[in-house]
Design a protein that fits this description.
Blueprint lengths: L1 H11 L1 H23 L6 H14 L9 H8 L15 H22 L2 H20 L6 H13 L6 H19 L4
Helix pairs in contact: 1-6, 2-3, 2-5, 2-6, 2-7, 2-8, 3-5, 4-5, 5-6, 6-7, 7-8
């Protein structure tokens, strides 16, 4: 599927790329915002993430400050090297949400199909992991369907579907968190 997505993004141009990454990030956003809400000292990060998700939906023009947003995002703890790697459930999915946004900002600002594919790949990887850890889950198939929808030319309902999908993902990940 990745080859087809890359070709479609390349063929259809910058506005399609911007719409594609906005939808990917919208679906992943609850995994950062929801999992990091209430974390001490993360208020500014949460605000930056939410503002970027909102602004990515302006697909008619590239973000003028994409490079600055990426610079700030790269300071997030999720993108810093960890001596022991990422092992916790919340940390894993928050990482993928931040990684998805990082590639989305780059793709939105530059129109790079390669960065857009990387954004989509981060979402697919996270959903594949979620499927592996939940019997009967089909988050990967849903992500593939919604990525295809965002490339179809008929994007009516894409935002609503992305928001609903993001909520379902968040509920699923919450169900995997250890109980205190």
């Amino acid at each position: 599927m990745e080859g087809d997505v890359a070709q479609a993004l390349h063929d259809r141009g910058a506005e399609t790329i911007r719409l594609y990454v906005a939808a990917c990030v919208e679906r992943m956003a609850p995994l950062f915002v929801g999992l990091r809400a209430g974390s001490h000292g993360r208020e500014a990060d949460l605000d930056r993430y939410a503002a970027s998700v909102r602004d990515l939906w302006h697909a008619d023009r590239p973000l003028a400050d994409a490079v600055e947003r990426i610079r700030l995002l790269e300071r997030f703890p999720e993108l810093q090297p960890h001596e022991d790697g990422i092992t916790g459930v919340a940390d894993t999915y928050a990482f993928f949400a931040v990684l998805c946004l990082r590639y989305a900002l780059s793709a939105h600002g530059s129109g790079s199909a390669a960065d857009a594919v990387s954004c989509g790949h981060a979402a697919l990887t996270a959903m594949g992991m979620l499927d592996q850890n939940m019997a009967g889950a089909e988050f990967l198939a849903e992500e593939q369907r919604l990525q295809s929808l965002s490339l179809s030319g008929d994007v009516s309902g894409l935002w609503d579907a992305s928001v609903a999908s993001g909520r379902e993902r968040f509920r699923a990940v919450l169900g995997r968190l250890p109980r205190p």
